[in-house]
Design brief:
Layout: E1 22-26, H1 42-47, H2 49-55, E2 59-62, H3 90-102, E3 106-111, H4 121-129, E4 141-142, E5 165-167, E6 173-175, H5 190-204, E7 210-213, H6 254-264, E8 271-274, E9 294-295, H7 307-322, E10 328-331, H8 340-343, H9 352-358, H10 366-380, E11 385-390, H11 411-415, H12 459-463, H13 469-483, E12 490-493, E13 499-504, E14 509-513, E15 519-520, E16 528-532, E17 540-541, E18 545-550
Parallel strand pairs: 1-2, 1-11, 2-3, 3-7, 7-8, 8-9, 10-11
Antiparallel strand pairs: 4-6, 5-6, 12-13, 13-14, 14-18, 15-17, 16-18
Helix pairs in contact: 5-6
């Protein structure tokens, strides 16, 4: 009898490792530069593994490291079985995986199944072979509409702006739900299915522990190619409650997921986590027996700094996961969104994309954002389930919102006709040293410029400061193992409308003041304060602060 996925046990009888893990996301271009060319690489990551081990994480997840023209930061893949020359070699990847395991951490990689690069051999063969050829059947080519086929086959819009269709020289159109450089694969084609089975086995045979599956709610399209309702074009219809969108979250894709799961089940203790940006009611479908082990829960990425927002998301997410024997994942930032240290310093309701481009930038309260970011991670690390940390979160890095437009590389900038600045601001290389042309990232300037404040936020500047964000993360991850991972119980407490509070099965309690007035210490639940996100004011918990209380003995 199949168990719910995240209830499956390791041979030791303990819950599967991914069920209660802390996973650190590495955007490899921006982590550490080992050869001095300004771009992060495997040599840099290998040299900094001890930093991650000292942080106390359970696993590393690396964003795409494959050969790519980098039209979309590596998510336009040319070869899933090789390493981009700027990052290193396959031999170095093998060494990195081994060295990660030697330090007691697992290793996850991205797999990108929805599309390839236009430079992929398959797509180049499709262009050369012409209309109706077998080579074109691996992708989605269609005749256009209107006189002479001059109009796109459907009204579908690309995520990065403009039509999702581009015309080739012989008159046909190919589908690209993302950038023009990323043609969508045809997942009805047996060669496509067989190829990705082989790709998964290739990396597991090299001792990778699991995969983060990019755009897990994509891949399958309605083959009648209907127009999308006009009201779905702007929000891309990714969160419909019934799976009725023509190219997002369609029911048919679950047969693909089960096929991949069967491949991973050939091995021990391997997992896959879905990037499925779907309606909350649809997310449990991705976690059914025989499907994903985990799926990202992005709802906290969209939450305001509000006890009510956090509370409703936590309660709803935990309940939906528990109903299928799973636990949630918790994410505050990643490589696709404004960093939460900045989001929390902006007024409620602000449009982040418009703010990045046009401001007004003086509404940002950076100090409040930093305080709230420290408190927020004490929430996610204390909740039942897995926590995913984006590189630089442990340093409290803010969004670099003032990047000059001439350095922007995100395709969103061009595809939106310079109306959306894009994601480069959260991908600026992280600082390791107080000084230097790239604050220790490498020997020279980095591929994106770093702001002067990065020196004071560097690992070197923070490691010796007991009150630093880095040491808060280290302490929280260490204490998490003592207080919060032996059970998956969650009991929300009512301490007032502006106070987020909950107790775990161990008796440990979390309290966060998300209001504007201090909370008297007498109003705290019983227990010893073992960790706080910042200094207290006398006998009160100040606004934007969190505490962990160990149960009374």
């Amino acid at each position: 009898m199949n168990q719910p996925e995240s209830m499956q046990m390791e041979q030791s009888g303990s819950p599967a490792w991914w069920r209660r893990s802390v996973v650190y996301q590495v955007y490899i271009r921006s982590f550490a530069d080992g050869n001095g060319d300004g771009t992060g690489d495997l040599a840099g990551l290998r040299a900094r593994l001890d930093h991650l081990a000292e942080l106390g994480i359970d696993a590393i997840w690396v964003n795409p490291w494959y050969p790519s023209p980098m039209a979309d930061g590596g998510y336009d893949v040319v070869d899933h079985r090789a390493i981009h020359l700027d990052f290193g070699t396959l031999a170095e990847a093998d060494a990195l995986i081994s060295e990660t395991h030697e330090r007691g951490m697992r290793f996850l990689i991205d797999v990108v199944p929805n599309h390839t690069s236009v430079e992929h051999p398959w797509f180049q063969a499709a262009l050369a072979a012409g209309s109706g050829s077998p080579e074109r059947q691996r992708y989605i080519f269609r005749a256009g509409r209107g006189p002479g086929g001059d109009e796109p086959p459907t009204n579908w819009q690309a995520v990065f702006g403009g039509s999702a269709w581009t015309r080739v020289d012989d008159g046909e159109w190919y589908l690209h739900i993302f950038d023009i450089s990323q043609p969508d694969l045809n997942w009805q084609h047996p060669e496509v299915r067989d190829e990705f089975d082989s790709i998964l086995r290739f990396w597991v045979d090299r001792d990778v522990d699991g995969f983060r599956v990019d755009v897990a709610h994509g891949m399958v399209k309605d083959r009648s190619f209907p127009d999308a309702p006009v009201d779905l074009l702007d929000d891309r219809g990714q969160r419909l409650p019934d799976g009725s969108h023509p190219h997002w979250d369609r029911d048919e894709l679950h047969q693909l997921i089960r096929r991949w799961r069967a491949v991973l089940d050939e091995y021990d203790n391997r997992m896959m986590v879905a990037e499925a940006n779907v309606h909350p009611d649809r997310l449990p479908l991705y976690l059914r027996p025989g499907e994903y082990h985990q799926s990202f829960n992005f709802d906290l990425l969209k939450a305001k700094w509000s006890a009510d927002d956090f509370r409703s998301i936590i309660v709803g997410s935990a309940a939906r996961a528990a109903a299928i024997g799973a636990v949630s994942t918790w994410v505050l930032s990643n490589h696709d969104i404004v960093r939460h240290a900045t989001r929390y310093g902006l007024p409620p309701g602000i449009d982040y994309e418009r703010w990045l481009l046009d401001g007004p930038h003086d509404v940002l309260d950076a100090e409040a954002g930093a305080r709230r970011a420290r408190a927020a991670v004490m929430v996610t690390l204390a909740l039942p389930g897995s926590t995913y940390i984006y590189q630089g979160d442990e340093l409290g890095l803010p969004e670099v919102w003032d990047l000059p437009v001439e350095v922007l590389e995100d395709p969103t900038w061009e595809r939106s006709k310079h109306t959306v600045k894009g994601r480069d601001g959260c991908r600026v290389p992280i600082p390791w040293a107080k000084h230097g042309s790239s604050f220790g990232f490498g020997e020279g300037p980095s591929w994106l410029p770093q702001p002067p404040i990065f020196g004071d936020l560097s690992v070197e500047a923070q490691k010796g400061d007991p009150a630093s964000t880095l040491n808060l993360y280290r302490s929280a991850i260490r204490l998490r193992g003592d207080l919060f991972v032996a059970d998956e119980e969650l009991d929300m407490l009512d301490l007032g409308v502006d106070i987020l509070a909950f107790r775990r099965g161990s008796g440990a309690t979390v309290v966060v003041n998300m209001g504007s007035t201090p909370l008297p210490a007498d109003d705290l639940p019983p227990g010893e304060i073992v960790l706080s996100s910042g200094p207290t004011i006398g006998t009160k918990l100040p606004p934007d602060a969190a505490v962990w209380l160990a149960p009374e003995s």
